[in-house]
Amino acid sequence: MFRDSFKYYKSRNPAPNLDDVIDLENPDHVKVRKIKANISDEQDENNFGLKPAEKWIIYELLDIPGLIFIQNPFTPNGQRYWIIKCLKDYSKEPYKLNIDAHNILANETWWEICFQMSERAKILLPKLRWSTLGYHHNWDTKLYSENSKSAMPMELSGLTSILAKTLGFSDFKAEAAIVNYYRMNSTLAGHTDHSEMNVAAPLFSISFGQTAIFLIGGPKQEDSANAIFLRSGDVVIMSGSSRLRYHGVPKILSTSRIPWDDNGEDNREIITYNYDDWRKARTYIVEARINMNIRQVLEPGQIVLY
Description:
Blueprint: H1 2-10, E1 32-34, H2 41-45, E2 57-61, E3 67-71, H3 76-89, E4 96-97, H4 110-114, H5 119-124, E5 130-134, H6 154-166, E6 176-183, E7 188-191, E8 203-209, E9 211-216, E10 226-230, E11 235-238, E12 247-253, H7 275-285, E13 288-295
Antiparallel strand pairs: 1-2, 2-3, 3-11, 4-5, 5-6, 6-13, 7-12, 8-11, 8-13, 9-10, 9-12
Helix pairs in contact: 3-7
């Protein structure tokens, strides 16, 4: 059962045995289908921190049809750029944060406060758990509303468009996103993403920072579950019959590799970031994980919610 697997991997004492966790960097013992990328001119115009698509390693898990995995398609600069975006830009208005309800911020941003040497910064830094972009997900009603939305960040829409087209999802449109900020003791309870009007469209999940154990089961809590390692830069796409499966994150693990510190450069790189911003962001990501999950809300041709 999903709940039993979640409890097992969440355990701290005793620590779980990780031998059965699927490692798609070593897929020899996993039933997978290798997918060839659809090469698009769009990526040449703006690569959004991505390696050339012909270098991507893409699998579909045969035991979980529709679950697609891209092994870190980002350059080191790309990882730095997106980590800064999540921490500096996606943690302030017009986006909604979990800490908004507590009136902690007064004409300040979480970023401005949290990278100062102060007691207030130490207290506030771990309190940020999520932000919502585009259509803001209502955690109480589990609904989206035309009265609660902001513009989707253009760069995030562009990134997702390239990922979608490279995988053949040419009609995908990014309309909502949730950015989750995990500390090392954080978890994400098992759930299904069914709030969107259009659950036929794929869901894109992009991870940065420390390693997660991603648990995915079936359409019911009673179904068995598989655990998968997700490392910094990895992208998971829940499409087809995998789109409404139960999934969650029972554990965060310290990463054994730090790809954002690699020196490899790509002469196509056109993204830029502030090095002082990266110095601050790096202190955060060495003991945290960030996940961006992007979804389409509306049906094809639908203009607004009913």
